[in-house]
Amino acid sequence: MSGGLRLRGLRKSYGDLQVLRGVDLDVEPGEVVCVIGPSGSGKSTLLRCANHLEPLDAGFVQVDDVLVGYEPRDGRLHESSERDIARARLRMGMVFQQFNLFSHLTALRNITLGPTRVLRRDPTEVEREARDLLARVGLAGHADKLPAQLSGGQQQRVAIARALAMKPAVLLFDEPTSALDPELVGEVLAVMRGLAEQGMTMVVVTHEIGFAADVADTVVFMDDGVVVESGPAERVLRYPESERTAGFLAHVRRHPEKETDHA
Amino acid sequence: MLDSLHTLEVVRRKTFVSRWGTGAVLVAVVGWLAVTVVTSPNLDWVVVGEYFLSTPIIEGIGTTLLLTFATLGIGLVLGAALAMMRQSRNPVAGAAAAGYIWFFRGVPLVVQIVFWFNLALLFPTLGFAETNAVITPLLAAMLGLGLHEAAYLAEIIRGGFLAVPRGQVDAALTIGMTRAQATRVIVLPQSVRVILPALGNQFILILKGTSLVSVIGGGDLMTRAQQVYGQNYQVIALLLVATGWYLILVTIAGIGQRFLERWAAA
């Protein structure tokens, strides 16, 4: 099988705390995977390990048949050079809970920085594409605003445009709506829904069970550093096989605001 | 009783008398000091006026400014490099930077200036030339001031780096930048706003610190003032000339700092 994102046997500890205890995940091209689970279950660490923001203790990540962050040599996986890691990361875009827009740059410059500085593409062409992307996320009139002048929902949509500008094979979303005021969640989810419909490969760590039910092809339930259950979205969300999945879903449906509040 | 309170006139506490009292004492003390100094028969104001715009003093100011900006330049470039080394994941680079800062911050500036001036005693030749032909008093002064300043600026710049949220680097990495690129393109510009106020303060310290190069005859304002009073014995008058010029330069620097900060905040 080729393309897509493969995570195999991912292990990651911080001191004595085992955050990932052997996680496997396959994402096919065009597939939307939602990862759900209680806080502290390792979901965010999984994404940060996937694009090597955090180095792994064991296991490997492959995107588009390219190994991320490591190269096999004499029977071991050696961490790649900064340059090679950066190049492999280009295949994955990431959207953060706290948006992380570059605070000293305008919305437009946030989007054009990667293509011009990293990919060394023609600035005029890049700017035209960036303006198209801003229009696509509904922010055509906000190109020259600084992040501080935008609402949380608008910042997150710029962040999505920034990730798209690099033309990644996979987009990773780390709780993209958890830091937003409730009335701003919808506009971000709408943009993500649009991307999914256009065939973008996406891995979304989220507490929005409704979004997962509507948009995801596959839902993965994680708890305590392992994948407890995964399968077609409807099956996992409607007829969970594991009691832990069922318990979590029942809890979230009873207290939706609690699960979206925390960081 | 309570019903009628709102009808009463409100009277502020009287601070008038005590305020005037302290004020008058202060004015009296400062005034007495000023009059004593200004009217002292040992201070010749004609000499102060004569030398304030004289050639040696103006040349000295030129050298003082040259030293100040050279020190700031060396300090900023080297300090930024040291700050990046301290941030780096390479333990050797980190330790080297920490060692540099420890040493150059720990040894008094005068000692460093005198050391560079006397480098010839340690290395009589520098490969291509006589050490004393290369290390002029001015270059010794620049080296002493610049290398010392770099240690301070490294810590200030590092503080600025730490003020930039970690997520900014994460975001830069995810659009394909290397760590070094992220530091240069994202972290450095964002830390300027944090660094600038401390930098203005440091500029004023450097400006005044250049007067220390007079111990090696560095040719700055203080050196020139000393040379003049070494000949005419008008020590106080020439120290007043130097004092006046330092205050003028520091005042201008303070105004410049306010403009820079306003620009950075915008």
Give a concise summary.
Chain B: Keywords: Amino-acid transport, Cell membrane, Membrane, Transmembrane, Transmembrane helix, Transport. Chain B: It is a multi-pass membrane protein. The complex is a heterodimer of chains A (263) and B (266). Chain A has 263 residues and is α/β, with parallel strands linked by helices.
Explain this structure to me?
The complex is a heterodimer of chains A (263) and B (266). By secondary structure, chain A is an alpha/beta fold. Chain A is built from ten helices and twelve strands. In chain A, a hairpin with a 2-residue loop joins strand 1 (5-14) and strand 2. Chain A starts with a strand and ends with a helix. In chain A, 47% of the residues are buried. Chain B has 266 residues and is mostly helical. Chain B has one domain: MetI-like fold. Chain B has helices at 2-5, 16-38, 45-52, 55-87, 91-106, 109-117, 119-122, 131-134, 137-162, 166-174, 179-209, 221-232, 235-265. In chain B, helix 6 crosses helix 9. The model of chain B has no long low-confidence stretch (mean pLDDT 90). The A-B interface holds A 51, 53, 82-83, 86-87, 89-90, 92-94, 96, 98, 100-104, 113-114, 117-119, 159, 162-163, 166 and B 165, 167-168, 170-181, 185-186, 189-190. Chain B: It is a multi-pass membrane protein. Chain B: Residues 61-251 form the ABC transmembrane type-1 domain. Chain B: This is Polar amino acid transport system permease protein.
